[in-house]
Design a protein that fits this description.
By secondary structure, this protein is mainly alpha-helical. The chain is built from 12 helices and 3 strands; from the N terminus they run ααβββαααααααααα. Strands 1-3-2 form a 3-stranded antiparallel beta sheet, covered by helices on one side. β2 and β3 form a beta hairpin. α4 packs across α8, α6 packs across α8 and α6 crosses α10.
């Protein structure tokens, strides 16, 4: 088991390394835009690229290469900047990350600010919203699924199943648009955008309602449908019929045996749902103006701020792969009969 855990974690980091490396090489092969800004900002940005090893500079124009850009200093001196080969940039990039944890600086979003600093400022907001959504959706979805299974083929079951099928088909961006129109613009009950850090505490709390509800809605429907299906299948098994013949009541068989066995495939799905929520939060953060890494990913992609994009991509990839490892391991802890990596 321990050997399997180390092997899966190692493969997760190797996969992340391959994805980020391929992304870096493919992006660097694209035509890059010149830095737009004041001369002081341009000089600072290009000098930082030279320091990191992504560019070279010269006070004289080289005959063997075309300059990527040039900057005229206050004393009239012209400095020419040249890009180095892509694979050389890749080697320097890997070295800077491994030795100095330096992912480069922002080019357009916050010029000359380290990419890790920008990501760190917005990572907490995204994680907070996603964790609250999971804590909100898991108990409600499981309880609705249990209720529907216990009331199988009754009016309550039909109503819950119909509503689940309707609402699980709604994309998150349609749901948040409808809620913003109804609760924000028409009735002015909730804030129309994510509150600022200086806003009152009450407004900050109200700002969580729309994003948490929209992220939780699909998860609640998914949990409800999954729990109902698993519990109905377990309740029709032969060992529960044997338990009833031994004198246990219906309530005892459900809570002592049915729920315990039904939770084996249900509990690991919570981790998989967390991964899905993180992906869906990109659209939600962009629509509601939430300063999170999901919205930052879209902004960085549109602004061609690739250093920000690489860090953001590394976080999403690492979280997804490590969550997949924990997902596989959780089966063995929940059900002792399952042991990963056994001979």
């Amino acid at each position: 088991m321990l050997k399997y855990v180390f092997k899966r974690i190692f493969l997760a980091f190797v996969t992340t390394f391959i994805i980020i490396s391929l992304s870096f090489i493919c992006v660097k092969l694209l035509p890059l835009d010149k830095f737009l800004g004041k001369p002081e900002q341009r000089i600072a940005y290009y000098d930082e690229q030279v320091r990191l090893g992504y560019m070279s500079s010269s006070k004289y124009e080289r005959q063997d290469a075309t300059p990527f850009d040039f900057v005229t200093l206050s004393n009239g001196t012209v400095v020419y900047y040249y890009t180095v080969p892509v694979m050389q940039q890749y080697g320097v990039w890997i070295k800077n990350i491994v030795c100095h944890w330096d992912w480069g600086v922002s080019k357009t979003i916050s010029p000359n600010v380290k990419a890790t600093v920008i990501i760190g400022e917005q990572l907490l907001t995204s994680m907070r919203i996603n964790i609250i959504s999971v804590l909100f959706s898991v108990p409600i979805g499981i309880l609705l699924g249990i209720w529907a299974a216990l009331k199988k083929n009754t009016m309550i079951d039909h109503i819950i199943s119909t509503l689940v099928m309707i609402f699980i088909s709604l994309p998150s961006f349609i749901l948040i648009t409808f809620m913003m129109l109804l609760l924000c613009y028409k009735n002015n009950v909730l804030p129309t955008q994510w509150p600022n850090p200086t806003d009152p505490l009450k407004l900050k709390v109200l700002g969580y309602i729309i994003p948490v509800f929209c992220l939780s809605f699909g998860s609640i429907c998914g949990y409800c449908r999954f729990v109902r299906a698993e519990l109905c299948e377990v309740m029709e098994s032969e060992y529960l019929l044997l338990a009833r013949t031994k004198g246990l009541t219906r309530k005892q068989t459900i809570f002592r045996h049915a729920l315990k066995n039904a939770m084996v495939p249900i509990f690991p799905s919570i981790l998989a749902e967390f991964i899905g929520i993180m992906g869906g939060s990109m659209i939600l953060e962009n629509l509601y103006g939430i300063p999170g890494i999901g919205r930052l990913f879209i902004i960085a992609l549109s602004a061609k701020d690739y250093n920000i994009l690489f860090v953001d991509m590394a976080i999403f990839t690492t979280v997804s792969l490590l969550a997949g490892v924990v997902l596989d391991l959780s089966y063995g802890f929940i059900d002792p009969r399952i042991r990963m990596g056994a001979k």
